[in-house]
Amino acid sequence: MKAEVSKMLDIIINSLYTNRNIFLREVISNASDALDKIRFLYLTDAKEPKTDAGEDPKMDIRIRVDKENRVLYIQDGGVGMTSENLEKYLGMLGFSGTKNFIEKMEETQSKDASFIGQFGVGFYSVFLVAENVKVASKCDGSDKQWVWESKADGNYFLYEDPRGNTLGRGTEIALELKKDADEYLDIEKLKEIATKYSEFIHFPIYVQVEKKEKVPVAKPEVDEEEKPAEDASEKKDDEEGEVKEEGEDAEKKEEKEPEMEEITTYNWELVNENKPIWTRKPADISEEEYTKFYKAISKEYDDPMYYTHFAAEGEVEFRSILFIPGKAPSNLFDGQQESSSIRLYVRRVFITDEFTDLLPRYLSFIKGVVDSDDLPLNVSRELLQESRILKIIKKKLIRKSLGMFKDIVDNDKRLEEEQSEKKDEEKKDDEKKDDEPKEVEEEKKEDETSYLKEITYPKFWEEFGKNIRLGLIEDGTNRARLTKLIRYKSSKSDDKYISLEDYVDRMPEKQANIYYITGENVEKIKHLPVLEDALKRDVEVLYMTDAIDEYVVGHLTDFSGKKLVNLAKEGVKFDDSSDKEKKIDSKRKDKYEVLTKFFKEILGEKVTKVILTKRKTDQAVLLSSPQHGLTANMARIMKGQALGEKNPDVEAKRVLELNHLHPIVDDVFKRIQVNEKDQVAEDTAWVLFDTAALQAGFDLGDVQGYANRVARMVRSGLDIAGDAPAVQEEEYEIEEEEEEGDGDDADGDEGEDGEEVEGEGEAPTEEKKEDKDEL
C-alpha cells in the first residue's frame, strides 16, 4: 500500500501538474467550497464558534508567510474537518472527494450543498512546492482541533493539535516550502497568483502585508503620586519663570522633533476586489461596469465596440460575457498567439486561457469569460479539451458571437430608419409626432444590452472584415450566416459598404448575375478595362480589394439564387443572346478568323486563345482569364507568398479579346490581308498585347522586347527609318577658365601693369582676335 501511495504521489507531483502555481488555485478553491458549505449549513443552524482566545472565525480566506521558518499559511473559516474527515479525504490518497461529489450529484440529480467542501486530488498539488504539509482543522461537530501531517512519502500522521482551539472553525494549511520554492515567500508573487486564478471567488481573499513604519518613541508615564514633593521656593521659582518660559522657550519646544523608532506592522490586504459581474443580472450592470471589466480582463485601453451578456441553459448551463474589441489586435493573423482571448472559469475559479480552439480561428479576436458549473475542476488540460461539455460550449459561443455581429447590423438599420424618419418629420415640421416615437424607443432601449448610439458596422467591417471572410471559407456550418455579414464597396455605393442583400434588392429584373471584380484597391480597379463594359451598361459591380476575397468567391459561388461572376474572366454576358445575334456572331467569327489566327500565331503560348470580344469597350484589345484559371490578381497574391515565384502553377493564363471595331485592330486586319508577314502589323500586335497586360495587371514578361517594339513604332509614326544613324553632335568651342597664377609657376605671366599676358606658344582664340580688331 505504501509503495502504491508513493507512486501515485509521484505521478501527481511530477506528471499531473506542469504549472506549480496551480497549487494555490486548488487550495483557495477548496477553501471557497468549505466556506460555501458552512454558509449553507448556518442558514438553518447558526452557531457562534470561538477560539480559545475568544476570537470569532471569519468568512474569508487568509494567506500569510513566515519567511524566517519558510512556511506558507492558507487559512479559511469554512466548515472544517473532523479527525475522521481528515483520515478519509487526505489520508486515503486515490479517494477523490471531488470525484465522489460529482458521482453523488449525478446519482441524486441534486444540487445539495452538503457535498460542497470535500477535498479532492487537487489538494495534493501542494507537494509541488512543499516538502512537508500540516493541515489543522476544527469542525463544529468536534470539540478538538486535529492536525494531519505528511511529507508525500506515503505516510501521514493524524493527531490532536497541541496548540488547542486556535481556529474556532475552519482549516489552516501550513506548507513548509522546498528549497527551490523561495518565490512563494514573496507576497507580491502570491498576490499575483491569487489574482490570476481566484480573482472572482465569492469570498474575500486577504494577504498579510508587512510594512516598516516610523513612530514616536513612547515615553513611560510617571504617576503623579510618585513625584517628589516640591518645596515652596521651587514652586515660586516656577511661577516666576513661567512667563519667561512661555515667551522665550515655547518656540524651541515646538520646533524640537520627537524621538522616532522603526516598527514592523502587519496589515491584511484584499486581493480580489473585482467581483464576477457575469453572475449578476444584465439589467443591474451599467455600461461603465462592463467597460471596466473588459479592460481588466483584456488589458486594453480602448473601450469595447460591443458586448453580449448571457446565460446558456439546457443540456449545459454556463454564464458568459463576450466582447468585440474597439480595434483589431496587431498580431491578429501572425499565428503566434500563446493564449486564447476567452478565459475559462469553473465555479468562478480560473482554469485556463490556453484553449486556442475554444473559438475558431476567425473569431480569435473575441474576448470574454465563460463560467460553467458543469465542468469539473480537471487538472488535465488535454482531458478538458476532449470534454463533450466543452464542445457544446464552443458551439454556443460561436452562435452568440455571430449573433453579436447581426445585432450591430440590425442596430445600424434601426438608427438609419430613425435618421430617415427624423429628416422626414423635420420637413413636415411636426414636433408632436417627432416626440412620441422617441419616448417609445427609449423605453425599448432599457431592455436591451446593446448600448450603440451610432452607426457601427462599417467600423467593425474595417477592423474585422478579414475575419468574417476567413470564417466564410473555414466554417461551412455557419456559412449562410456569415454570407449575410460580408460587405463591399461598389460602382454605385458612393464609397459606402453594401451587403449582397442590398445588391440583389436593387438589381434590375433582367439581371441574372452578381458582378464583381478583384484588385489591390478601389482606385486601381476603377481603371481596369474589363470594368468599362459594365459601367456603360449601368450594371453595378462589387469591388473586392482584400487578398482573401479571391478565396472567398471560390467558396461563395452564388447568393439568393444569383451566380457571382468575375468580370476579369472570359465569356462575361450581361444578357442572353437572341438567335439572330448568334448567327451574326458566327458570321463575324468567320470573317475575322484570319485576324484571330494571326494574333495567336504571333503570341504563341503567351495566350490560351484569341477571341472577338462582346464587351462594349474603347480599348483595342483586352486580356481576361480563362473561366477556371487564375486571374492576374490571384497570381499576384500567390507570388507574394513564400516560394510563389518558383511555382509554375501560379502563372495566370490569358485570353486575348480583340475589339474588331477599333481602328488600330482594323488597320492590322487590313495589313495582314495584304501581307501576313507585315512587320508593322506584327509589332502592333505585340504592343497591343503588352499594353493590355499592363492594364490588366499581368506580368509583362519580355520588358526589353516591349521597349524595342514601342521604339520602332514611334520611329514609324515619325517617318524615321529604322536604320537611321544617330545625329552627329556639332563641335562646341568652350573657352577655358584661366586660373590666377602665383609668380613664375602661373599659367600666364603678369606684366608690369599687373595685366595678364598670353603664355608662350599659345595661339590667340578667334574671340580675342575679333576683340583686337574692334580695338
Chain-wise SSE layout:
Layout (H helix, E strand, L loop, with lengths): L1 H15 L5 H21 L18 E6 L4 E6 L6 H9 L5 H12 L21 E9 L6 E6 L5 E5 L9 E8 L9 H12 L6 E12 L15 H24 L4 E11 L16 H12 L7 E7 L5 E7 L17 E5 L2 E4 L14 E6 L8 H5 L2 H41 L2 H15 L11 H18 L4 H5 L3 E4 L7 E2 H6 L7 E6 L3 H5 L5 H5 L4 E4 L4 H7 L2 E2 L2 E5 L12 H13 L1 H11 L5 E4 L8 E4 L7 H8 L15 E4 L4 H12 L4 H18 L6 H15 L31 E2 L5 E2 L8 H9 L1
Parallel strand pairs: 1-7, 11-13, 16-17, 16-19, 20-22
Antiparallel strand pairs: 1-2, 2-6, 3-4, 3-6, 4-5, 7-8, 9-10, 10-13, 11-12, 14-15, 14-17, 18-19, 21-22, 23-24
Helix pairs in contact: 2-5, 11-16, 20-21, 21-22
Instruction: Report low-confidence residues grouped into runs of 5 or more.
Output: 94-106, 108-119, 436-449, 743-775
CATH topology category name of the largest domain: Heat Shock Protein 90
Q: Tell me which CATH architecture of the largest domain applies here.
A: 2-Layer Sandwich
Number of DSSP E strands = 24
Structural domains: how many: 4
Mean pLDDT: 79
Q: By helix and strand content, what is the structural category?
A: alpha+beta
Describe the strand arrangement of the main beta sheet, using strand numbers. Answer: 5-4-3-6-2-1-7-8
Report the sheet-strand fraction.
15-25%
The first-to-last residue Cα distance is 133 Å
Helix content: 25-40%
Radius of gyration, in Å, reads 44 Å
Instruction: Please identify the top-level CATH class of the largest domain.
Output: Alpha Beta
How would you characterize the largest beta sheet? 8 strands, mixed
Shape: elongated
CATH superfamily of the largest domain: Histidine kinase-like ATPase, C-terminal domain
Query: What's the number of helices?
Result: 23
